[in-house]
Amino acid sequence: MTLNGSLFLKPAAAMAVILLIASCTRFSGNGYSSAWEKYPDSRWVGPDLWANRLADWEVRDGRLVCIGSQPLRTVHLMTRRIAPGDGNLMTIVNIRREKVTGIASEEAAGILVGAGPALDYLSASLIFHSWGEGAGLFIGIDGDGKLFMRDLEKENEFPAYATRGEKNWTEAIIKITAEREGLGMTRINAMAVDPVTRRVISEIKNITVDAERLTGNIALVAHHGRQTIDGSTYSFGHWRVRGSRTHSFRERNTGPIVTAQYTLSRGILKMTAQLMPVTGDLCDSVELHFTDEGRWQKVAVAAVDTPSYTARFRLQGITGSQDRPYRLVARYKFGNRAVNTLTGTIRHDPVEKDKIKVLALSCIEQVIKPDPTRWMGIDAGYFPFDRYILYPHSRMTGNLKKQKPDLLFFAGDQVYEGASPTAAVYGNGAMEDYLYKWYLWCFTYRDLTLNIPAVTIPDDHDVYQGNLWGAGGRPVPEGLNGPAAQDAGGYLMPPEFVNMVQKTQTSHLPDAADPAPAEQGISVYFTDCNVGGVNFAIVEDRKFKSAPSPLLPEAMIVNGWAQNRRWRPDWQPETEGASLLGERQHAFLEKWVADWSGDTWMKAVLSQTLWSCLATLPDSATSDAIVPFLEIPDSGTYVRGDRIIADYDSDGWPQSERDRAIKTIRKAFAVHICGDQHLPSTIHYGTDAWNDAGYAIVAPATGNIFPRRWFPPEPGRNRAENSPEYTGEFRDGFGNRMTVLAVANPHRSMAEPTRQNELVTGYSAVTFSRNDRTIEMANWPGYADPAKDKPFPGWPVTVSQADNYGRKITGWLPEVVTQGLSNPVIRIISEHNGELVYNLRIKGNSYQPGVFSYGAYTIEAGDPDRDLWKEIEGIQAWTSPQREPVIMVF
């Protein structure tokens, strides 16, 4: 290996160097050439590239500029990849120091090769900031003008470092070549030349490495060391990549259209296209095309909204029994006019199907924390890239496709503000930080959301809060920070940020049931969505929830946990002034439970979290801060010494409002599907008695760094024979009744990556059956192949629709028989108070209602879609079901 320093060349020799740099004759293949000189100023760096992070890079004055001031900022070339095997590679780039004075010698800029050789291109595109296994080789020029090769798989390893350079360099053209050496080795040469004086600034020669060290992604790097001077930066221009080892994948472009989500409910299509951060000059609209007799026809145009960078469509009359191909078209100007298209399928409303399947996901971490004791991800300084990147969850998304769902439900925490993959930005740059992390979610699920309707709702972490008591949308009180601010209630982030988040995640949902904004102008999205006759209420169970700390000062609540050890939350079933869903959502639910139009035959509620507190902690713990550090037990081990806890972040509080919500949705025999808790479970809600309401399933976390658990100190009552001790009837820490049917506690796993899978990550599958009116609930490991594997132990749990109103029947009304009308909706109304007791659509034409108190009732039967109803009043409840039927003729 030969290391040469700065050389001053005669004019002829200098010209030869320039010609050498410009020459690509030996390096044919699938090349790439940047064109930033033709771009308008933009935060988006181009259709072939991915920037780490979005807030750290921009195109300015025709160059790619790093505006971040942290280590190892990268821009990955997504549409090219260095293939394994023999062959050659050449890459050349112009690098300029945008601030010459004050740049430390340890700062550097250059090119990263061989990033993530064992990873797919998306996983590898997250290689930045830290050193670690799979990080690649960084070949660059430092602040003293010296070329080097740094092996980023090791903390401070430099296989080559030039002894001489030019400290006052301001601009350099760097050329790197890699050519076959034989015996599986590659010879690398690098040269830096001043483009003005045409002299060599620095050079390293004949560095021999294993050829496979070049396999993987290739990226630009701007590195700011520990002595970074604020404002110092590097810019790049005229980047070219050539060579026989360069393979082209143009379909891997990054936009400007990133993905789309849609719902189709009652003939109304709502679709949101998500774009990269484009200026109006670059791209101001998106077109939606359908096919007509085999040709694409434009059917709608939507303007690009900022700062959400979404284009939103709403079309009526989308009916029929055939799926509908579509494409989204963005015409943009990066130099010449260009067109970006993204295609998908709008599935027809599956009203003909017997079974409707919903997959539920939540809590989507993109990386595994390398050190469980530190809340850091890729920015930890060291990161094992070869095994701790979860993005883009390829194995799990492949298994999701095998489930063949009719609806996707993303229950919240699509984005984690911290450590997924990097620390949060709260001030300037917060929106770009959110979008950067949101785009990871978009690419992860793009193949699914382009082709399957999806309900997506944000939770607390999506709006950059660890806990959220939204208090109707108000801001947190001024002058408070951290847990004290959250405990006071309200939103930490400004309303513009919250609304931006909600537009990206929820603007494709059916129109809001009550669209008036909450406080600060924060939008609302609670609504319903009908898929194949299953009607889903979409509820916001954070936005209107009261903060407990101001209402319960004696509890001394910190971050949702009572620090007064004498405080007994189960003795406080009523908290005056406390709200859970808020009056507007309760009014919506009362209307929703009574509305069976659209041929609805089953109902379910979708929300962020469970309406109980299903968790235990070691008896000495005063909060859940200990959770990430708890030892993971062996499979089958029952952890002793835990107590049932009361976490005010859960929707077990406020208890009376929790009961009110559960009693409302049971009128429609609705099951509850949610996420958030990081503890896969299925429970049967109880209010005044155990099991007197509906069932709920909590989806596993998709990526878990907070492994809650359920090891109650006493076995559950009335549990099924041979069931685990943690099943059966319990009161949670707030005194709420619940019957636990299945839980997947954290346990040691042999499935790779073990840290991810021992925290019981995965998703829920809920199947509604029209013919037998059953609901099958199952929680699946993300790694399990549904074609041959099984859900977590304890699942599936199958219940009947009628089981979702488990209240004890004390009286019977006569059997209702409808003639001339099949599958009617039956309503039972108490004449004592005029309230709806319950209603449902039956299968067939006969049904005998049971009731829960004696007295007179009105029975209604009919078809809400035709507004065709019959009723009989004054029907008395009898103790015995043996009585003459009531016949209603239509």
Q: Structural class, judged by helices and strands?
A: mainly beta
**Would you identify the CATH H-level superfamily of the largest domain?**
Alkaline phosphatase D (PhoD)
What is the CATH topology assignment of the largest domain?
Purple Acid Phosphatase, chain A, domain 2
The CATH C-level name of the largest domain is: Alpha Beta
Which descriptor suits the 3D outline? Answer: elongated
Count the E strands.
52
**Whole-Å distance between the termini?**
94 Å
CATH architecture of the largest domain: 4-Layer Sandwich
**Number of helical runs?**
11
Q: Which value, in Å, is the CA radius of gyration?
A: 30 Å
Give the percentage of residues in beta strands.
25-35%
Low-confidence stretches at least 5 residues in length (pLDDT < 50)? 1-21
Question: Overall mean pLDDT score?
Answer: 94
Query: Largest sheet, if any?
Result: 9 strands, antiparallel
Number of domains: 4
Q: How would you describe this structure to a colleague?
A:
The longest helix has 20 residues. With 890 residues, the chain is mainly β. Helix 5 runs parallel beside helix 7. The chain folds into four domains: 238 residues, Jelly Rolls; 90 residues, Immunoglobulins (Immunoglobulin-like, Sandwich); 450 residues, Purple Acid Phosphatase, chain A, domain 2 (4-Layer Sandwich), CATH 3.60.21.70; 79 residues, Immunoglobulin-like. The chain starts with a strand and ends with a strand. It contains eleven helices and 52 strands.
